[in-house]
């Protein structure tokens, strides 16, 4: 659907889908998300006088209604906030936590192999949800409007219904085999006879509206205690889940200092562990900074070769060094050190491809990946459509970049009966067995082993980039599991190295490599000649194209009030919304 464009307005907001090469422009703030009604909610909050945090929180709750495959109450995520007045950037970690009854080998079968069905689609795959605590923490500390004001639009969408988009109809159809197995999900997302909603039909979610109303009335207690908590625990008991009342009451948001690095004079601030995204994006940018990429030309073979070899080395490190920093001493400073990048760059042969089996995590040669293990791990990850990103920017220069998720599309497919929302399957982001690939084909080490109250490693990479003068110039992020990190990095490269505007940067074909499987994934649009040259260098290319990520981004020139937003056309239904002019 690249190139589609439409616009409409109500009293408070104008929604516009950008075209392939032209961003939407506004001088009064902007919200970009994967679902246009949710973007509109954010713009209406800006029109009410709310700041970017108010708009982001309202959009997050609205997406829980209108984008149930990834928008959520039952999942978790990361929010980066830049506060203009204080000139301060912070991150909020509201990632799910393992229940206290979780244990290292809980997903292993009697043979000691990972039981993937249990790790991904059983109720035990759910971590303790963090979204409600995270969004409320942001609002309480950095918002300006009341909880009732920011929640009312989501309540209205759930209570009164909204017209089903082609994207929602299609994704519910694709996920029907899983969602039909759970009676609550079947009743929430399909008609009484079990058939799917068609484009334009209204989806009403009364139980979800009641849950949102409890949150509007009682704040965090409206979710982690009282009626909603009782419904969650009843679901756990019915289906054999591990989350108990204490786990819910004990859920904690963590504010963490973002990790920031310099790339060609720009300051890139992004999510620290338990996301792997920030660490490895900065690591790859450090490697790439040593070459004049612009001189190589965008998506030339020489350029893609350098990207792939940087990605290969960063993802090898990811497999060994990354986990929850509250449980494992993640060597962030070492991995993002420019000298380490110099060392890695020095290992790269500019004429021919390395083999992933020859690359080990680099900081310590002790990391062992023997040949038989590597051969076993050559599974191709399925295309992931889950997780979602949104960006919000207000007229005062406050910026929010938020990525949150249920992990897989529609999480584990299990809804909390009576409460109207789906549960995550984030426990699969742990390494159920160090050395075994998860749902994205990613390998993890002991750093990411399951432990009670630990947060699973993530790839989510909400990012804000600042120019040489310290002004924010880009907010971006993406869904896409393991591909998130490389997709977000290519947005930065496209803008910084190739001077693209945000729409061009979004539309440009992307590539991805993650060490294992040893394969270059690429989008349609990378030229056949380039692919031939890459094969000639020894790269193993995927046998078909795939779509990589879905960035929802806002750009500024850093010196005027104008903002430029682009919703990624890779996902039907995404949109930019701006407050209507007074
Ligand atoms: N569940 C996907 C991620 O957190 O990266």
TrEMBL record:
What stretches pass through the bilayer? Answer: none
Residues of the active site: 387
- Keywords, alphabetical: Acyltransferase, Glutathione biosynthesis, Hydrolase, Transferase, Zymogen
- What are the recorded Gene Ontology BP terms? glutathione biosynthetic process; glutathione catabolic process
Q: What is its EC number?
A: 2.3.2.2, 3.4.19.13
Q: In which pathway does it act?
A: Sulfur metabolism; glutathione metabolism
Q: Does the keyword Hydrolase apply?
A: yes
Which positions bind L-glutamate? 95, 405-407, 429, 458-459, 481
Q: Domain of life of the organism in this record?
A: Bacteria
Disordered: annotated span: 559-582
Catalytic activity of the protein? an S-substituted glutathione + H2O = an S-substituted L-cysteinylglycine + L-glutamate; glutathione + H2O = L-cysteinylglycine + L-glutamate; an N-terminal (5-L-glutamyl)-[peptide] + an alpha-amino acid = 5-L-glutamyl amino acid + an N-terminal L-alpha-aminoacyl-[peptide]
**GO MF annotations for this entry?**
glutathione hydrolase activity; leukotriene C4 gamma-glutamyl transferase activity
As for family, the record states: Belongs to the gamma-glutamyltransferase family.
Quaternary structure annotation from Swiss-Prot or TrEMBL? This enzyme consists of two polypeptide chains, which are synthesized in precursor form from a single polypeptide.
Q: What is this protein's name?
A: Glutathione hydrolase proenzyme
């Amino acid at each position: 659907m690249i190139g589609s464009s439409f616009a409409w307005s109500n009293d408070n907001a104008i929604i516009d889908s950008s075209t392939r090469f032209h961003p939407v422009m506004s001088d009064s703030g902007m919200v970009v998300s994967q679902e246009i009604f949710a973007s509109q909610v954010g713009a209406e909050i800006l029109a009410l006088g709310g700041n970017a945090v108010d708009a982001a929180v309202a959009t997050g709750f609205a997406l829980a209604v209108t984008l149930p495959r990834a928008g959520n109450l039952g999942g978790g995520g990361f929010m980066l906030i830049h506060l203009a007045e204080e000139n301060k950037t912070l991150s909020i970690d509201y990632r799910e936590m393992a229940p206290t009854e979780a244990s290292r080998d809980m997903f292993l079968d009697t043979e000691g192999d990972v039981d993937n069905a249990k790790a991904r689609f059983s109720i035990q795959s759910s971590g303790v949800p963090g979204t409600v605590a995270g969004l409320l923490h942001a609002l309480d500390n950095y918002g300006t409007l009341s909880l009732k004001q920011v929640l009312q639009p989501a309540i209205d969408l759930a209570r009164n219904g909204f017209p089903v988009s082609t994207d929602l109809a299609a994704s519910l159809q694709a996920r029907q085999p899983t969602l039909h197995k759970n009676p609550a999900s079947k009743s929430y997302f399909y008609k009484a006879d079990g058939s799917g909603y068609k484009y334009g039909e209204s989806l009403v979610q009364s139980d979800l509206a009641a849950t949102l109303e409890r949150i509007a009335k009682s704040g965090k207690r409206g979710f982690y205690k009282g009626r909603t908590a009782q419904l969650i625990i009843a679901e756990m008991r019915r289906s054999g889940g591990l989350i108990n009342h204490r786990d819910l009451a004990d859920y904690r948001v963590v504010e963490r200092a973002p990790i920031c690095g310099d790339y060609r004079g720009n300051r890139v601030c992004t999510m620290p562990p338990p996301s792997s995204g920030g660490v490895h994006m900065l690591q790859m940018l450090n490697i790439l900074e040593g070459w004049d990429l612009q001189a190589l030309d965008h998506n030339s073979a020489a350029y893609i070769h350098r990207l792939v070899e940087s990605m290969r080395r960063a993802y090898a490190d990811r497999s060994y060094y990354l986990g929850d920093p509250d449980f494992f001493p993640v060597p962030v400073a070492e991995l993002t050190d420019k000298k380490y990048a110099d060392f890695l760059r020095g290992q790269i042969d500019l004429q021919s491809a390395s083999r992933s089996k020859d690359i080990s995590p680099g900081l310590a040669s002790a990391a062992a990946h023997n040949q038989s293990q590597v051969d076993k791990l050559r599974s191709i990850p399925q295309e992931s459509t889950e997780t979602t990103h949104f960006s919000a920017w207000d007229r005062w220069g406050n910026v929010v970049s938020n990525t949150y998720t249920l992990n897989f599309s529609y999480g584990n497919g299990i809804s909390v009966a009576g409460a109207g929302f789906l549960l995550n399957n984030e426990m699969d982001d742990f390494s159920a067995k160090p050395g075994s690939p998860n749902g994205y084909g990613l390998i993890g080490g002991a750093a990411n082993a399951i432990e009670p109250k630990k947060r699973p490693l993530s790839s989510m990479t909400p990012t804000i980039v600042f120019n040489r003068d310290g002004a924010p110039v880009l907010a971006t992020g993406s869904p896409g599991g393991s591909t998130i990190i490389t997709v977000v990095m290519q947005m930065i490269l496209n803008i910084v190295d190739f001077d693209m505007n945000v729409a061009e940067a979004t539309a440009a074909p992307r590539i991805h490599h993650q060490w294992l499987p040893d394969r270059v994934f690429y989008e349609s649009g990378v030229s056949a000649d380039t692919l031939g040259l890459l094969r000639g260098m020894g790269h193993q290319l995927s046998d078909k194209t795939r779509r990589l990520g879905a960035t929802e981004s806002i750009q500024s020139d850093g010196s005027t009030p104008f903002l430029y937003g682009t919703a990624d056309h890779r996902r039907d239904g995404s949109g930019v919304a701006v407050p209507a002019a007074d």
